[in-house]
Amino acid sequence: MIQIDHKVHVALDSRAYDILIGPSLLDAAGAILKERFPGRSYGIVTDENVAKAQLPRLAASLASAGLQFEVIMVPAGEASKNYAVLEQVVEGLLAARLERGDMVIALGGGVIGDLAGFAASITRRGMDFVQMPTSLLAQVDSSVGGKTGINSPHGKNLVGAFHQPRLVLADLSALDSLDRRQFAAGYAEVAKYGLIDDPDFFDWLDANLDDILAGGPARGEAVARCCAHKARVVIEDEKETGVRALLNLGHTFGHALEKDTGYSDRLLHGEGVAIGMVLAHGFSARLGLAPGQDLGRVSAHLKRAGLPITLADIPGTLGSTEQLMAAIAQDKKVQRGALTFILTRGIGRAFIEKNVDPEKVRNYLEEMRNV
After folding, report:
1. CATH 3.40.50.1970 domain extents, the chain
2. What pTM, to 2 d.p., does this model score?
3. Active site residue 286
4. Residue 82 annotated among the catalytic residues of the structure
5. Any catalytic annotation for residue 248?
6. pLDDT at residue 1 tops 90
7. Is the pLDDT of residue 148 over 80?
8. What fold, for 6-177?
9. Any catalytic annotation for residue 281?
10. Which of 62, 94, 138, 172 has minimal CB crowding within 10 Å?
């Protein structure tokens, strides 16, 4: 019997889909797909690391259900979100003779979800795809909402499309294979939901952090609550023309730091977001918008989760402040050259601030480099 602990429905009319959360869903994937999408063949896009840990489970499940599939393997890591690897995936789907009515499976973390989803959106002018997120970050954030894409030398996620999945299978047991650093990086996106507009959830996270880290019942509940939160935002603002931008709390600073560190293991995406959220709270406090004690509480919580919280926590030497500002100027939220940031009036009180003075940002970053 298939165990589904939580089900979240993303009500987007003809593009509606379910997020199923529970243990061992990769082992049940074949039966689920056969029932929901009969007559399809599948192209599994995954990376070398995930393939070792999770691909045998998924392959056995699909085979036992009598489903045909091909595997397209890419290198692990953020660096795979580029034009060359995108071409590899698209050509792999075509070489496998997958038709427009077949499906792509994204088996992996946020990189694989973004890459495979974008490939699905452009191959044969659009194929359906299923998200099977294996990292905490992907389960609570990137697998939900239809944002797909790759990075450009100019910045992160600047090339892509909105392409909603047909189904999300979040297998909680897959999280057991993550090391502490990878899990902590995903947790930054969990904390983000409380910091945006749900202070009660942040209080709950503070009280249940140890159980979440240890893989107790609170872990599944945290995943489900994050997915439900994101689903509500996506339903209201699918194409990020308004409130969905709030989900980028910490990302403007974080993406600039990721670009500066070469999208490498020096700084994982979630680690950049964690530092970015601390910087966003600190900058808001500097502008007189948020209480300083909230900055302290956010910093302490993220540090307790095992996350870096300052620029000094990033290994190696960062580029100049001007280089960071140049990356910030390429942020997707920039409008007519004016900087837009997600700032906050305190925990759970994030808001969109347009026309932020770049000189104030520059001075703040320069000061934070010396903290």
Report:
1. 6-177
2. 0.93
3. no
4. no
5. yes
6. no
7. yes
8. Rossmann fold (3.40.50)
9. no
10. 94
